[in-house]
């Protein structure tokens, strides 16, 4: 049907073309780089192996000075091109083709929507039998506003201009050229600067295509019809830092900076798959996880010289590769091998440690509605809304997790299919990653090292004193006949194999202990036991491991040691009160253990152990003989 026209010649369109286009210009593209990504999506969908992005600048007089400003942006590809009917539809807002699982695009709005968000004039040439046989059409906002055009102009024969032929390095017998002119929403000026600002984003969004060699993306600044300095070919920017080569600064430009993080149950290390049933079909959501290699968190890397001005105490986060990782914090959402968003809302505020992990969640286009994928492919609203989700806070009184999910199903809650995935991320994967990251720095954290050294020295004095007084222990027996090398090997193996410290940190801790003749060492670790601490008895070394999984760690040690630098007096007083309360509860727990112990002779043995521990405590704390 055509438009309904009244007797006075007016019509009753639901919306007018001019208002639609003007409204859609504010469609939420974060910046020009994201708008460009829509054009690259179309090129990839057209099976292009080369996509060329041109930023063309011209001289502009500003007072007495002449500057250069970008006036044209173009994307040229060697894809399969479009026949005239398809070309005309491509410039229509919402082609209505629906979701094609083989395509990146969603609703046929990407080309006009992204283009008109940046410019007021869009021209498109496309050809299927040589650039000399190209067909051309366009959209012009001024013509639309003036009522000169209501429909996309019918494509006309128009050979590809020589200007673009000369700039191209891989012009094909088939292809498409999209040109933006009358740029009024582009904030950048120089051509090289314009493309430089897209480098990291384009490399990250299309990292899988670039890494696999499926597409080459050439970014070329142009001045007066010639490509100038600043040209580059996009390289992968991998937030999981598992690919190589990438844009990561040396020494990690040609080798992975991270390693797969495994929970121990995956068939493929670092990869977990979640089946989701949607509209009667089964689909898989793939989660990939990574964690920094220990050497990435040191100021120098094995086999590399120390950089000028860098020492062993330098924070790796301030070095080039650490700064690169800071810009890649969050969970990467990937759809059809193309990143939608790097969602930082899953990270803990601005904790510098968060830069040292990577997680990618990949899903097929069939799950767009479940994830809440936006039309401009810049995010997934449903998934993002579930960051830091606590199902218990949303459950009704006494409701089980199963009952909670059944209630969501009754109300057709859009987040239900993602609940298991979200809880895996929040309650299992991320906590495990953060524990491992903390373990990597055991013995190297400057804030507590002096205090740990003091405690180790005092404990060593007590151990030596008791040994000299004839109170020998297992560690003393093991030391008899043990060489320095066997002690070193035993301690390193305990730290690396039982407590998962990296080799370099363990070697450093052991060398320091041997050099200072320390007989005691304190570390924190994650152990699957109800005990709040455990011990290692080794030749000449009494090692105590405080279990960070036990609530006592969070309520006792963490309260005292993880104190913010800007903590005020009231905060410090509150921390001391909490520790005092926790210590009293700890003693009450022992008392109740004695109370519940049967028969009486067992209770008496525990009481004897309590009194014996008290004597040892007096010796270690006050330095007095245990039998005084």
TrEMBL record:
Organism of derivation: Streptosporangium minutum
Keywords, ordered alphabetically: ATP-binding, Nucleotide-binding
Biased composition (Basic and acidic residues): 450-476
Molecular-function annotations in GO: ATP binding
Ranges where the record places region Disordered: 296-321, 440-488
SUPFAM superfamilies reported for this sequence: ATPase domain of HSP90 chaperone/DNA topoisomerase II/histidine kinase (SSF55874)
Matching InterPro entries: HATPase_C_sf
Any Pfam family the entry gives: HATPase_c_3
Protein's recorded name: ATP-binding protein
Gene3D superfamilies associated with the record: Histidine kinase-like ATPase, C-terminal domain
